[in-house]
Amino acid sequence: MKVLIIGFGNMGQTYANSFIGSGFVNSNDIFVLNRSEVEKTKRASIPKENFTIKSTQALFEVDIIILAVKPQDFMVMSHQIKPFLNEEHLFLSVMAGISIERIQNELNVEKVVRSMPNIPTQIGQGITVFSASQEIDRKELFIIQNLINTTGKSLYVSDEKMLNPATAISGSGPAYVYYFMDAMIKAAENLGFSNSEATFLVNNTYLGAVQLQSRSNLSHEDWINKVTSKGGTTEAALDVFANEKVFENIEKAIKEANKRAEDLGK
To answer: Is 173-264 the same fold as 3-159?
Structure first.
């Protein structure tokens, strides 16, 4: 199986490294089309001759094409590659906001999978939500899912519209976690801990809490109740969250992120 990655930014590099690291794709069978020369340190074990800045017919003699350019660069890219495409090509897009239908129309192709990965894919701990055009059969979808799963876990949705909520939840989600962690670290520093001590405390609190919950059948509400005692410290903090409507504001923020994802796709 030969794979062409168009765009070698963070996601392009992540896929290349994951494919090679998992052994799913041989490094000699990965080709890269980028708008500028790729530095030697970023090529992984892919041969230098597999990198190019120019489209040629030979370059597109591959099975799968990964569209990893920025959404705003899609139109320029589509004009450059369209003459070299055929109906047998299988496409995996990681471009936010660009619909399957638009990709099909602009490139005059049929087999398109659209995905929304998040940043932990860089360490093989990501979650990717994906959807596919009707022209893709089960075998092809299985192959694509195996490729995606080299970067973590995946969730298939039959309704492409669910990719916008996925963007708001899992795509943007790590930033919400970092935001809350940063607030906890600053609070710890204000209470007298050094930055390194505060970071150590908060990072390991998150790691432990997530692992504990994932290994049990208890709900998050159950765990909150286990940590909280009547008249205790946790209850005092949760009372502030409730009074400030933190729960409702988080939901409001995610809805706003979803709306923005919808707007970007128009």
So the answer is: no
List the chain pLDDT tens, one digit each, 266 residues.
999 999 999 999 999 999 999 999 999 999 999 999 999 889 989 999 999 999 999 999 999 999 999 988 999 999 999 999 999 999 999 998 899 999 999 999 999 999 999 999 999 999 999 999 999 999 999 999 999 999 999 999 999 999 999 999 999 999 999 999 999 999 999 999 999 999 999 999 999 999 999 999 999 999 999 999 999 999 999 999 999 999 999 999 999 999 998 887 77
Query: Is domain 173-264 in CATH 1.10.246.40, yes or no?
Result: no
CATH code of domain 3-159: 3.40.50.720
Cβ neighbours around 156 below 10 Å, total = 16
Residue type, 66: I
What is the domain partition of the chain in residue ranges? 3-159, 173-264
Angle made by CA atoms 205, 207, 212, in degrees to the nearest 5: 95
